[in-house]
TrEMBL record, chain A:
Name of the protein described by the UniProt record: Succinate dehydrogenase / fumarate reductase membrane anchor subunit
Composition-biased stretches (Polar residues): 1-10
Pfam families: Sdh_cyt
Stretch list, region Disordered: 1-36
Gene source species: Streptomyces harbinensis
Single annotated GO MF: metal ion binding
Gene3D superfamilies tied to this protein: Fumarate reductase/succinate dehydrogenase, transmembrane subunit
Automatic annotation (TrEMBL), chain B:
Top-rank lineage group of the source organism: Bacteria
Transmembrane in keyword set: yes
Record keywords: Heme, Iron, Membrane, Metal-binding, Transmembrane, Transmembrane helix
A GO BP entry: tricarboxylic acid cycle
Protein name: Succinate dehydrogenase / fumarate reductase cytochrome b subunit
Species for this entry: Streptomyces harbinensis
Amino acid sequence: MQTMSSTDSITVDEGYDADNPAPVIEPPRARTGKTPKATRTNFELYGWLFMRLSGILLVVLVLGHLLIQLVLDGGVSKVSFAFVAGRWASPFWMAWDLIMLWLAMLHGANGLRTIINDYAQRDNTRFWLKMLLYTATVFTVLLGTLVIFTFDPNIT
Amino acid sequence: MPAGTLYRGREGMWSWVAHRVTGVLVFFFLFVHVLDTALVRVSPQAYDDTIAVYKTPLVAFMEYGLVAAVLFHALNGLRVVAVDFWNKGARYQKHMLYTVMGVWVVLMAGAAYPVLSHAFRELFGS
């Protein structure tokens, strides 16, 4: 057919035809033999959802915290051991601070995990940066939790 | 220089950049803040001595910067939630960013006196 001629010339330019096919480019997210089975979960979906739900709660918890610590009653000037003891005498503020600690640390850790995955290109660098992140996060969350639960207003 | 797109170099991209930068800043502060608060388990003296650092003028300005980062991250985070869950969110993402910036300016103006006044009093006398 006459109309085929232009198509034919393109095929010749590329050097590919039915007998000499172009190399197959795998879709970027294709599952290959090397893909571990363990990644076949919805972890990233739950992470995405957690960021939004914890974020909404943190807007209330953190802005309330800033209002109490930095704005009301003379701002940061009034913060002292006695001030902390006064607030943690109430289970309400203990719960506030405990929930805020856990949500903020997990929200921040997951954010930094995303950033490490984005920018650290070598497998080893990415692995060790995340190990450092997880170690620091677990340490800080446990330390903060311990401090809230074992706080002693009569310590000397 | 590639041609502009709906996203690249525009409100969407820059709000994403600012969200990352403010998020990292706040997270690093959070580590320090849990550690300084943990000093209440050491002694009232150790805690009060460390908190005295927060009351110096230089750190007061850093606190104002922290408030700036937290407020942007919080307000823009609500915008991200709206873009993801509200069916008109993507259409109004620019309007919402300008709303975020407007509310941010108002709240920053409101926070200036409570957060910075003691620093000014210390620097320039009462």
